[in-house]
Design a protein that fits this description.
The protein is α/β, with parallel strands linked by helices. It has 14 helices and 13 strands. The model has no long low-confidence stretch (mean pLDDT 96).
């Protein structure tokens, strides 16, 4: 037994969250071999209880029909409310500040309808240059909707030449420079390509000092890093739930709206499920929004797409985000240590090396020509390691603390070393 194997086994034996891996279905390849799944940053694994949650709704639908809205085991009429408290715990919010609804980009558009209100003076939006494409598309289309153009009104910040991560001070200074021209600042919690976790609190504070609305895309942050949205005083946040929240492909997303806006008269795209439930079924012509984030709902919740989220959130409640984050730091640190000691200059880690500046994910560049580097990823996949490739040259690996082990990490690095040296 090598020292690394002994180290990994000892870490697994001492891991207080080790048993949680048994709560998830682990994928297998065509030969029956268990995959080393390090792709939770793209799609989380299925909780074993997810099928039970969905089957319960199907049974209640079969048994009760429309009466299930009130008499199902988990009544459908307020189904989304069951996710509020656990989601609030994950993002550092009050339950009235969060709602499970729609998908991430739909929610982003709905939030921009309310919070991006350009004037003659304030008509610019600041994002990061390598933002996930859907965010950029959404912002550019909102600018166009208001008769503005991205070439002039979209400000894209990027790392300094030769650097890979944004510096907090640089972003703050750019926000201050743009000052009263800014209508909105939209930032990621964790940058999807590099895995950098932004230092959100001072960035949010800078945007608010500048008088701009500020929103956060938490797609790669929720269930991954520790968040405190209420105290940070962000205006809004949006997220999907199929990555670290393990709610399945196409699962319902979510939204945060700070309580400062709970009773606001901000314009919004209204729908009947955002209407005050006390008078919703009177079917009157006047829209009376629910106080809080639920007031931004448009349609009733997709029960079958929300059920797996409830299954996963129950696991998060049992594990606790503090313990999850503690293991994440150790697990990804172990991945970093093995890559640096075993592969050295053959693999370049572009994710920040400081644990507080990243989540689970490490993004790697393989020191090979593009075709050869991509082939390394193919060899890694053939060896049973599931990560993903982002063009032109980034391999992303993310050991998820709820279902990955230190032995998984060691096996992945051994496979990567074999692929790179071939």
């Amino acid at each position: 037994m090598t020292a690394d194997v002994a180290d990994a086994l000892a870490r697994d034996a001492a891991d207080p969250l080790a048993a949680f891996a048994d709560l998830f279905h682990q994928p297998f390849d065509s030969t029956g071999r268990r995959s080393i799944y390090l792709c939770g940053h793209s799609l989380g694994l299925q909780p074993k209880t997810a099928a039970q949650y969905v089957e319960q709704e199907l049974k209640d639908w079969q048994r009760l029909g429309v009466l299930g809205h009130h008499t199902a085991q988990r009544p459908w009429i307020n189904y989304h409310e069951q996710a509020a408290a656990p989601l609030a715990a994950l993002v550092g919010a009050q339950p009235t500040e969060v709602v499970a609804m729609n998908s991430l980009t739909v929610n982003l558009h709905l939030m921009m309808v309310s919070f991006f209100r350009p004037s003659r003076e304030r008509n610019r939006v600041l994002i990061e240059k390598s933002a996930f494409p859907s965010d950029r598309y959404a912002v550019a289309s909102q600018l166009a909707f208001h008769g503005l153009n991205a070439a002039e009104h979209l400000i894209e910040i990027e790392p300094r030449p030769g650097e890979r991560a944004l510096r907090t001070g640089d972003v703050v200074r750019r926000i201050e420079q743009e000052g009263d021209k800014l209508g909105m600042v939209l930032l990621p919690g964790v940058q999807y390509l590099t895995g950098q976790a932004l230092e959100l609190e001072p960035l949010i504070a800078a945007a608010r000092r500048a008088g701009a609305a500020v929103g956060v895309d938490l797609a790669h942050a929720i269930g991954n890093t520790l968040l405190n949205l209420h105290d940070w005083n962000v205006d809004f946040a949006v997220w999907c739930s199929y990555k670290y929240l393990n709610a399945g492909p196409g699962a319902v997303g979510g939204c945060f709206v700070h309580e400062r806006h709970a009773r606001s008269d901000l314009p919004r795209f209204a729908g009947w499920w955002g209407h005050d439930p006390e008078t919703r079924f009177e079917m009157g012509p006047q829209f009376l929004p629910i106080v809080g984030a639920q007031g931004w709902q448009i349609s009733n919740p997709p029960v079958l797409a929300t059920a797996p989220l409830l299954a996963s959130l129950e696991i998060f409640q049992r594990a606790g985000m503090q313990r999850i984050r503690k293991k994440s730091i150790a697990l990804t640190g172990f991945l970093q240590q093995l890559i640096e000691t075993r592969l050295g200059s053959l693999v370049d880690i572009i994710t920040p090396s400081i644990a507080a500046e990243r989540g689970c994910q490490l993004s790697l560049r393989i020191a090979r020509p593009a075709d050869a580097a991509r082939h390394c990823h193919e060899l890694l996949a053939a060896a049973g390691v599931v990560g993903d490739w982002r063009e032109p040259d980034v391999l992303r690996l993310a050991p998820a603390p709820l279902y990955n082990s230190y032995s998984d990490v060691l096996a992945a690095v051994e496979a990567l070393a074999h692929a790179v040296r071939r």
